[in-house]
Amino acid sequence: MLSRSILARPRLELSFKALNHETRRLASTKSLKDTIAEVIPSKQAHLKRLKEQHADTLIGDVKVANVLGGMRGLRAMLWDSSVLDPEEGIRFHGLSIPDCQRQLPAAPDGKEIIAESMLWLLLTGQVPTPDQTRGLSRELAERGDLPQHVEKLIDSLPATLHPMTQLGMGVAALNHDSSFQRAYEKGIKKSEYWTHTLDDCINLVARLPALAARIYRNVYKPGTPLPKIDKNLDLVGNYAKLLGHGDNHDLTEYLRLYIAIHGDHEGGNASAHTAHLVGSTLSDPYLSYAAALFALAGPLHGLANQEVLRWQLLMQKEVGDNITHDTIKDYLWKTLKSGQVVPGYGHGVLRSPDPRFIALQDFCESRPELLESPIIQLVKKTYEVAPAVLKEHGKTKNPYPNVDAASGCVLYHYGLTEFKYYTVIFGVSRALGCVTQLVWARALGLPIERPKSYSLDAIEQLAKSGSS
Ligand SMILES: CC(C)(COP(=O)(O)OP(=O)(O)OC[C@H]1O[C@@H](n2cnc3c(N)ncnc32)[C@H](O)[C@@H]1OP(=O)(O)O)[C@@H](O)C(=O)NCCC(=O)NCCS
């Protein structure tokens, strides 16, 4: 399939290489698949060099606190597409979110980053040209229809089943047509794993909008027709259309930005790590990403955007029209004193306001009608007082907002009010980073993951022998 597609077709274009905060103009005639193929040897050589020269070099300590603390802070994983700095936030192959906003091609009718240009950057380390981006959009649209058995499966599920459970089930069922699985059964060489993985990954990304929109339709708008995928639209343009919001240009642009910047957040977060772990067993991309989606469905991870909105609406109900810094402060303390977390605040790695939150805030700042929205004003006012309250509370290492503090409220304002659905949108997005890792793990021949575990007694013994 891939060989007949634009992914494998040479194109006469220029491309840019993003490297260590700089971009270099390169003459290129490469398709996505050829571009990845071109980058693979140097990455393989880099990995080999590291193994040969530094296999015994220490890059961190393993403390008992790391082992007992959810492996927090352990440098234990290779993830090439993005690196998260605690203060500065995420960079994708060296590019910050504002860099990406300046450099990555947008949709023909828009200004925001789109999923295709982000996916190209993540997979290749290079900034695609507008033509390459459009080519990938068309490729995704052409592959975007769901197989019938998946449609039937989703239609058979009760509308009361959480949309994330439905999404995970639908993605797992896509493995019926896995190119990797078929090729593996035939006995392909290890060096060919990545091409079949890429084929599955592109199919997976392509089909997510139709799958996610079908779930939305079944759960919230039963009986309404689902439009067909428009071959001339980008991935998220189609997703907005399938959700029934295609004529809302601002919401479409918001979804484009949201999905692009949520796409990858280095490898240690629960969904990304799960995709990598499951993929490391040579499970195909559909099964690997289905597993990741079930990690994303936890309230401490992706479900937080649903929780933020639920929490902010409860606050709005309780506080009524009397929204002041003091009333918000009281509500924050009430939440904390009842033993709950303040959703949308804190982070496992970040120690500053999340640049993704700032990008979404900037989106609001540029649109006067959003600034007047009561729910967005509430989010903004909460941000003005929450860090000080959380500092005073003294538990969280990061009292600042993460991306989820803002993401759901904008959707709510634009009329996508079904907040139990919000994590599904995150699920459409996070695929970008996870599939990138799956392709590269195969291209680099990364092994099955298998860290060592110890019992409480064994850890104590190790600690005592280490400290004596
Ligand atoms: C994201 C999160 C899970 C990170 O967890 P973490 O790495 O363990 O965070 P910390 O090391 O700062 O946690 C230290 C303590 O502060 C608490 N804490 C962290 N964030 C908090 C918050 N937003 N509100 C209240 N307490 C919080 C933790 O529950 C923990 O308490 P404990 O010692 O009683 O277990 C956590 O900040 C959280 O639960 N945030 C709210 C949910 C959320 O927004 N998730 C989306 C993340 S993108």
Strand and helix map with partners:
Blueprint: E1 13-19, E2 22-28, H1 32-54, H2 64-68, E3 82-85, E4 89-92, H3 97-103, H4 115-124, E5 126-127, H5 130-142, H6 148-155, H7 163-173, H8 179-186, H9 193-220, H10 235-242, H11 249-261, H12 270-279, H13 285-296, H14 304-319, H15 325-337, H16 355-365, H17 368-371, H18 374-393, H19 404-413, H20 422-443, H21 456-467
Antiparallel strand pairs: 1-2, 1-5, 3-4
Helix pairs in contact: 4-11, 4-20, 5-9, 6-7, 6-9, 7-9, 7-13, 8-9, 9-10, 9-20, 10-11, 11-16, 11-20, 12-13, 12-20, 13-20, 14-19, 15-18, 16-19, 18-19
Residues 72, 300, 304, 336, 341-348, 395-398, 402, 404 line the site of coenzyme A.
Describe the structure in brief.
With 468 residues, this protein is mainly α.
Describe the structure.
The chain is mostly helical and 468 residues long. The chain is built from 21 helices and 5 strands. The protein has helices spanning 32-54, 64-68, 97-103, 115-124, 130-142, 148-155, 163-173, 179-186, 193-220, 235-242, 249-261, 270-279, 285-296, 304-319, 325-337, 355-365, 368-371, 374-393, 404-413, 422-443, 456-467, and strands spanning 13-19, 22-28, 82-85, 89-92, 126-127. The longest helix has 28 residues, at 193-220. Coenzyme A (COA) binds next to loops. Residues 72, 300, 304, 336, 341-348, 395-398, 402, 404 line the site of coenzyme A.
